[in-house]
Amino acid sequence: MTVSFKKSFSMILLVFMLALAFAIPASAASQSYEFYYNDNPTSPYNAHVNPFIVGPADVTGTTVTITLDDEYYGYLQADNGSGTFVNASQGLDANGDTTFTFTNSNPSSDIKVKLFVEVPGQHSALYPLTIHWK
């Protein structure tokens, strides 16, 4: 009986450890952020771009997803953590807001991005921004 109890206990412990190992990387954390225009925390343009943020970012491991109001965005390029800008995956959520998903090797640090905004009949421009975590 002692041998079977040891085997059962070992098996339960192994299953628990595997479940825990798979659960930790899968958990997403919500992280509040704001944009700095041109990497400047005191830029007067910050007040213009920040109202377009819809809720906190979802950060899962090295994957970051941000949501911006409406669908006026041509693309977003994000620093992948090594100084190289890569195109973010773009989508629309159920509310018609734009989502951007990208990876960064250190998403706990500020992330430089380039956001192309297209407002038909008004303006189209590429904005150098920094995601600053609050």
Q: Helix-strand pattern, N to C?
A: HEEHEEEEEEEE
Strand composition percent: 35-45%
Task: Give the CA-based shape.
Answer: globular
Q: How far from one another are the termini?
A: 56 Å
Total number of helical segments?
A: 2
Tell me the major beta sheet: 5 strands, antiparallel
Q: Name the quaternary structure.
A: single chain
DSSP helix fraction = 10-25%
The count of strands amounts to: 10
Please state the CA-atom Rg, rounded to the nearest Å.
21 Å
Low-confidence stretches: 13-26
Strand numbers in spatial order across the main sheet: 1-3-4-8-7
Output mean pLDDT: 86
User: Structural class, please?
Assistant: alpha+beta
Q: How would you briefly describe this protein structure?
A:
With about 130 residues, this protein is of the alpha+beta class.
How would you describe this structure to a colleague?
The chain has 134 residues and is an alpha+beta fold. 22% of the residues lie in helices and 43% in strands. It is built from 2 helices and 10 strands, in the order H-E-E-H-E-E-E-E-E-E-E-E. Strands 1-3-4-8-7 form a 5-stranded antiparallel beta sheet, with no helix packed on it. The longest helix is centred in the first third of the chain and has 25 residues, at 2-26. The radius of gyration is 21 Å and the shape is globular. It starts with a helix and ends with a strand. Mean pLDDT is 86; it is low at 13-26.
Question: Any descriptors?
Answer:
single chain; about 130 residues; alpha+beta; 10 strands
Q: Secondary structure elements and their pairing?
A:
Layout: H1 2-26, E1 29-31, E2 33-37, H2 46-49, E3 57-60, E4 63-68, E5 73-79, E6 85-87, E7 89-92, E8 98-103, E9 111-119, E10 123-133
Antiparallel strand pairs: 1-3, 2-10, 3-4, 4-8, 5-6, 5-9, 7-8, 9-10
